[in-house]
Amino acid sequence: MKNVSKLVVRMGLLSLLSVMPLAAQIDNGVDFTTSFPFYAGNAKMPAGSYKITHSDMDESILQIQSNDGVHSALVEFIPTHSAQPHPHSDVTFHKYGDTEYLNRIWVQGQEYGMKVDPTKAETKTAANAKVVEHSLSASLR
């Protein structure tokens, strides 16, 4: 009987986790502009204007593309939750020394955001440096 209870709890948690990605949606995309280069996954992106959209391949993958279409990256994300709906759309970065990494995307009015999976390079850098977190305002498309 104890095993059945554990199974029911695990199935419930799995069901809850499978619904979370549906809540973390960017309907038409998010636009933002940086004055600094940054990493999106393993891709180094130069300073400039970007749009973030869901990938056509998979709902758990985001596409970050420069507005001129020259630079693009695909990154996996993990849904994150806030106790309150986010008051405005923004993009958060983690800075280690002079290196910036895309970290989170929040959409105005939503309680769920998207945390970019850290790469091995970011994890290694984070182990040896202090993180400075900062955000840039973003706008819905």
Task: Characterise the protein shown here.
The longest helix is centred in the first third of the chain and has 22 residues, at 2-23. The strands form 2 sheets. A 9-stranded antiparallel β-sheet has the order 10-7-8-9-6-5-4-1-11. A two-stranded antiparallel ribbon has the order 2-3. The protein has helices at residues 2-23, 120-128, and strands at residues 30-34, 38-40, 43-45, 48-54, 61-66, 72-81, 90-96, 99-106, 112-116, 131-137, 139-140. The chain has one domain (24-140). With 141 residues, the chain is α+β, with helices and mostly antiparallel strands. The relative contact order is 0.21. The chain is 22% helix and 45% strand. The termini are far apart.
What's a quick, concise take on this entry?
With 141 residues, this protein is of the alpha+beta class. Helix content is 22%, strand content 45%.
Secondary-structure topology with pairs:
Elements: H1 2-23, E1 30-34, E2 38-40, E3 43-45, E4 48-54, E5 61-66, E6 72-81, E7 90-96, E8 99-106, E9 112-116, H2 120-128, E10 131-137, E11 139-140
Antiparallel strand pairs: 1-4, 1-11, 2-3, 4-5, 5-6, 6-9, 7-8, 7-10, 8-9
Which features would summarize this protein structure in a list?
141 residues; alpha+beta; 9-stranded antiparallel sheet; two-stranded antiparallel ribbon; 2 helices; 11 strands; globular
Shape, principal axes of CA atoms: globular
Radius of gyration based on Cα positions: 17 Å
In percent, how helical is the residue content?
Answer: 10-25%
Distance between the termini: 52 Å
Could you give the order of the helices and strands?
HEEEEEEEEEHEE
Note the main sheet.
9 strands, antiparallel
Unreliable spans: 12-23
* Percentage of residues in DSSP E strands: 35-45%
Structural class: alpha+beta
- How many helix segments? 2
Main β-sheet, spatial strand arrangement: 10-7-8-9-6-5-4-1-11
Strand elements, count: 11
Domain count: the total is 1
Mean pLDDT: 85
